[in-house]
Protein 1
Amino acid sequence: MQIRFIDSIHKIDAKHWNQLCPPDYPFVRHEFLAVLEDSGCTSAATGWQAHHLLVFIDEQLLAAMPGYIKTHSYGEYVFDWAWADAYRRYGFDYYPKWINAIPFTPCVGPRLLCKTDLPTSRVIDAVVQALTAESSRNNFSSWHCLFPNTELSAQLYERNIQQRLGCQFHWFNRGYQHFDDFLAQMNSRKRKNILKERRHVSEQGFHFLHKTGAQITAVDWDTFYRLYRNTYLKRSGHQGYLSAQFFQTLGSSMSENLLMICAEKNDTPETETIAAALFLRDKNTLYGRYWGCMEEYQLLHFETCYYQGIDYAVANQIQRFDGGAQGEHKIARGFEPVLTYSNHWISSPNFRPAIEQFIAQEADSIRAYANEARALLPFK
């Protein structure tokens, strides 16, 4: 078994890489990683240098891990800034580090990609050994696996790669035929509140267009990027992690996985998109990813990003709606707490015990938080 690292997704044939990918998860596909790289969103300059792991036997690709050398912790959504600060205060470098993750995408899914007839248990030991050796060769402080599925996280934990818990909120389709079927599962007060919120958006004069595939035009992409950039500028003072080229290229290379929901106002002299949300989807899951607006309107974000997403999921018999990281406001809207995982190997024996203790204490808090959130769900 031979393990190599490549510094560009284009150094492996797309067909060979995609043969390892499950059919129903878009973010690990060669096309998605290539769009990030080709648009300049992942590069050494942005602190996301590609460093993908490949596993071969007799020159046949058997497994792979999308990976990056990181010089900061932005865009990961598993927060280790406190660890980096502790290193800094004691005069050590936390960066660079290596992460097995999908950039800017906190969506749980496969992180070790294997041929269909090859279980991850066959290669996991070799992968762990290779990552540890690669970290030593390159002076990485650590390596991390972010948002893996539960099977891989458990396998890593069995090999003393510390497991860290997180919590997100996902919506689940319980066989609903209409949005009203979903509301019928709620207690009266919460049901009335959602109806009131949706009515308020309608009374402000908004209607919504659901665009998929080729229905999303170049003009739509230009408009969406303008909305996305405007929202980031107002919120954080920068233009966002993703470029106009990213969205345009994504639209041409992965159109079958895309849904854009556009909010238009009835009283404008010409049709104008005031806000929009961009989702990716596969057969079973809708992933809420990006949002932008030109002006703030009361409850417009909830309607565009959540209620319209639920409408689409119900109409298309999608079983799960992953609305993105964090967000306690989702609880009252029927999104349920879900535990997520990450795994972490720390090189330094001086810092490792303290980080392991932090992870253990945090896990108790995360479990308690998830239980409290579940008790607040609006269902009968």
Protein 2
Amino acid sequence: MTKERFKQLLKPIAEGLFGPQGTRRGPEMPHYVIRPVGMIVEDLCRIPEEDWAYYAFSREPLNGKFNDEQRLDLTRQAIACGREYAQKLADQYRMRDPEKLAKQLGLLVDFPDMPQNTERVLFAEFREPNKMHIYMDGVRKGRALLSEPGVPHALTGQLDIVKLLIGHELFHWVEERYKKEIWTRTYKIELWAPKPLHNRSSVAVLGEIAAMAFTKELNALPYSPYVMDAFLVYGYSPEAASGLYEEMMRLAGRTARLPEEDPPAALPEGETKGEPTA
């Protein structure tokens, strides 16, 4: 994939950057007010982990099978699953560094510049049985943004983009290793089928939510790694990232700011602005 093709796929993004991908197809790209990257990450880092449920499920093909209460409940269970397995590996191998863990577990991690032969926007991917690609062009662009006003404070000095990406993809290896028992694989939804037949399906987004919780736990981050969807896109297209920011804020029940607006007052701990209907 060329860098020019990569940018074309950002007009705009319709799927999360770590899961199944696609792009909105249409006659004309919507236009968005471009926000400073510091504003984007500052607001997104305020969104509690559970409140990413509606954004995450908006990428799920079976999203229409669930109501808001079910989406939130499943998100909580997926987060718990990701945390559980992060702690399990950390205890077993006495380390939390995702890069060192991947090496200890025998995964082959390489660092190509850009993805090849794909119609998806990717910054990292896991390929069975034990290979992981971390695409460095996006990492470099993300690192260049870390000194932008507001970004260091919002993302904290704990962020290592490569380790965050490795941690996310490492969970997908964990899912394969424990596929007979891990909740993200054993949970099934009953689809329509004539009686007495059964048509049960897994829910792909649960693995993505759990992977975010897994890498959040290993990297000791105080915010959801879903923030990276918009942050890493910003290095290629501030407008596409601003569009993602608007969508993320809306689905989290918050109002996106314009560049000249002051940040919202901090909410009391545990309080949110309400849940949208996704």
